[in-house]
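Sample intake — Glutaredoxin domain-containing protein
Collected from: Gossypium laxum
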Amino acid sequence: KDEEEQKEKQLATSQRSRRSGQNNPTRTTHSNMITLKKRRMYSYMGMGMGMGSDPMERLVKLASESAVVIFSVSSCCMCHAVKRLFCGMGVNPAVYELDQDPRGKELERALMRLLGNSQAVPVVFIGGKLIGSMDRVMASHINGTLVPLLKEAGALWL
């Protein structure tokens, strides 16, 4: 009788642990997916891939890997506006959220040195060339020079 009770308890415990994902290394939870995505993002952003430790070198490499690159901070309203501008135009920019990168502060300081001012984000590169922050992007959009830049970089086809 004791053996039967023990087997029932073990069965019940194993069913509960299966439902909750315990002792099941193949089960992927939402938080595991986020962690995995962050690891891939950091790997893509040059973390541990032989890229130099110099933030300016890393910045130049990241800026030249896509037709349109935006360095941003996820809580910045101006960053959100510039991302919406490009998405609204049909451009799919590569966005690097500096507040989600373990070495983001270093990149932010490098951007401030590059721009020569205290506001580091948003910063936009098109075709590997520095366009500037929000004011320069909006000025280019208003005066009609932004679309030709995007076409030249291969970010727009129409």
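Post-analysis note: The chain has a mean pLDDT of 78.
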